[in-house]
Specification:
The complex is a heterodimer of chains A (308) and B (247).
Chain A lengths: L1 E4 L4 E4 H18 L4 H10 L4 H25 L5 H27 L3 H33 L19 E4 L4 E4 L1 H17 L4 H11 L4 H26 L5 H22 L4 H24 L6 E5 L6
Antiparallel strand pairs in A: 1-2, 3-4
Chain B lengths: L8 E8 L3 E4 L6 E12 L6 H6 L5 E8 L1 E12 L2 E14 L2 E5 L9 H6 L15 H16 L3 E5 L2 E4 L3 E8 L6 E11 L2 E14 L1 H12 L1 H26 L1
Parallel strand pairs in B: 2-12, 7-8
Antiparallel strand pairs in B: 1-3, 3-10, 4-7, 4-11, 5-6, 9-10, 11-12
Helix pairs in contact in B: 4-5
Classes of the chains: A mainly alpha (308), B alpha+beta (247).
């Protein structure tokens, strides 16, 4: 059955869309990730214009992260103060990301930017994750224990504008959280991802936040930042397709529940290797499409009207 | 308008099976029938049978196009090992949809000059841009692109004439057809001359829910954005609630 997507202005098979939403939802439930970095490329590969894929995914991720954020909040897993600092940075980042997005769209380079951003971020994050999980598997097989010591003081501790975060039991400068939030905001606006794959490692390794509040706080931030991205894309470029978002999120929610059950049965390292493999696969496909000579060198598009 | 009427009066009557195409959620393209008849009125000096003696064979050309719009065409070039959009041309007043059909291949019954005069066929589309070789390349690329998308089509033999009076043409519209006002022109050609032409209007518009969403997104972007966020948050919370109940 075909369904016409009013903003994307094309008709797609609803079962294909549901399968995509469900499949990505399954993987995101299994790996505990948002899934935006898989969904956006998948939409692009299946013919949705990249700009619409990105903006619509931002909208879908709001839905995907809000229920997780609430669940973590009930368990006391959200550091609201830290969350607000991250959101502050995130909104600024999103604003600039959306501006870059709008400008590049008007000069016909937005698709290129999306592809490049995916290749760079997925390539580096996927690569790091892959190497890291191989290492920890090797360590585990040799029977070595990970030595947890008192953490070293670094230049990050020397930054000014310190603030006390009671929930995370930290007294640190706000510069780093604001910067991390801003980077994630830019990514949300230009890549259609929640940015958890950047934020969670950054919170653990750069901010040294306690792990029990990391996921909840990042989901809390992602909810607001992707909401801001949705809003800004709606205003600037009218690229948010609500119909597409609703179809995808319906299937993704169900898929995520099933995925979570499967994920519980797999070991942490196995999960991370699988996830890293997938991230690298998407990255490779994106890179391949950039390098190989396209069959048609010319593209025709309506003149993108800036603002309105 | 174009008719220089011959001795005998003839009228072309044409119509479309639908005058409005509504793009709704189920829309996956549309099929329309363009049909018509050539009415002949014997002028007083002539007898009916005299007409049939004269041989009244004719050909029909059907052109359906959307109202002209401005498009950008971009050419990819290899820069630092990757393919990126480089040069771009702005093309003005280009139909977003152009389909031409006829009883026979155009060249068999109408001269090149006439084809150009009436802008018949993809080769004779007026593509306004700077002159020069680049334009020819871009024009060719535009047509190739639009054919690929199913938005441009040139074919012959798909207009059928019955008893030299009735004619019909099946028109197929793809799901990605642009919205707007369309015109369907029918040209009657005899002895290499366009005898009569007749225009029928067609409106393609998003219908129902789809139109509401599209117009809302373009007319009230801030409210659309807020509603999109609201829909996502309520859907997320609702699904979380349901998932909790089930598990």
């Amino acid at each position: 059955m075909q369904i016409y997507l009013p903003i994307a202005e094309l008709s797609m098979n609803i079962f294909v869309l549901l399968a995509m939403g469900g499949g990505v939802g399954f993987l995101s439930g299994m790996f505990g990730v948002g899934g935006g970095f898989l969904m956006t490329p998948l939409l692009i590969f299946s013919g949705v214009p990249p700009a619409i894929a990105v903006a619509t995914e931002a909208n879908q991720i709001t839905a995907a992260s809000v229920s997780g954020a609430v669940a973590h909040w009930r368990r006391g897993g959200v550091d609201f103060k830290m969350g607000l600092v991250l959101i502050g940075g995130g909104i600024v980042g999103t604003y600039f990301g959306a501006m870059i997005f709008t400008y590049l769209r008007s000069i016909g380079q937005v698709d290129l930017m999306i592809s490049l951003a995916y290749v760079v971020f997925l390539g580096s994050v996927g690569g790091l994750m892959f190497v890291e999980s191989i290492r920890s598997m090797l360590r585990a097989s040799r029977g070595e224990a990970v030595v947890v010591g008192r953490r070293q003081r670094t230049w990050i501790d020397a930054l000014p504008f310190k603030m006390r975060f009671r929930k995370s039991k930290m007294y640190i400068s706000v510069i780093m959280p604001v910067a991390i939030g801003a980077l994630v905001g830019v990514l949300a606006a230009i890549m259609g991802v929640g940015g958890g794959f950047i934020m969670v490692p950054a919170m653990i390794y750069l901010l040294h936040m306690p792990t029990n509040v990391v996921i909840g706080t990042s989901l809390f931030q992602i909810t607001f930042v992707t909401a801001a991205a949705t809003y800004l894309h709606s205003i600037n470029t009218q690229t948010v397709d609500v119909v597409l978002a609703v179809i995808l999120l319906t299937a993704a929610v169900i898929g995520a529940q099933i995925g979570a059950v499967f994920g519980a049965k797999l070991k942490g390292e196995q999960l991370r290797i699988l996830l890293a493999g997938m991230v690298l696969l998407v990255c490779a496909k994106m890179a391949f499409d950039l390098i190989v000579e396209p069959q048609e060198l010319f593209t025709v598009s309506p003149i993108a009207v800036e603002g309105h | 308008m174009l008719s220089f009427l011959p001795a005998r009066a003839e009228t072309l009557v044409t119509d479309l099976s639908q005058h409005v195409i509504e793009i709704t959620s189920q829309f996956s393209g549309s099929e329309l029938l363009l049909f018509g008849a050539l009415e002949r009125f014997a002028t007083e000096s002539l007898q009916t049978d005299e007409i049939s003696v004269q041989g009244l064979g004719y050909d029909i050309i059907v052109v359906v196009q959307s109202e002209p719009t401005d498009l950008v065409i971009r050419k990819k070039e290899k820069v630092a090992g990757i393919w990126v959009n480089n040069e771009s041309y702005r093309l003005n007043n280009i139909p977003g949809y152009y389909v031409i059909g006829s009883t026979r291949p155009l060249n068999e019954f109408i001269s090149k000059e006439k084809q150009i005069e009436f802008s018949l066929g993809l080769d004779n589309l007026e593509i306004a841009s700077e002159t020069g070789e680049e334009t020819a390349e871009y024009k060719e690329a535009l047509i190739r692109n639009m054919i690929e998308k199913g938005l441009y089509l040139e074919s012959s033999g798909n207009v059928t004439v019955k008893d030299e009076i009735l004619f019909r043409a099946n028109l197929n519209f793809p799901s990605n057809m642009p919205v707007g006002n369309y015109k369907a022109d029918v040209y009657l050609v005899r002895d290499g001359n366009v005898i009569i032409n007749h225009r029928t209007d067609l409106l393609v518009d998003k219908g129902g829910f789809e139109r509401v969403i599209y117009n809302f997104a373009h007319d009230y972007p801030p409210f659309y954005g807020i509603i999109a966020v609201f829909v996502a948050i309520s859907a997320g919370l609702f699904s979380g609630f349901v998932a909790k109940k089930i598990s």
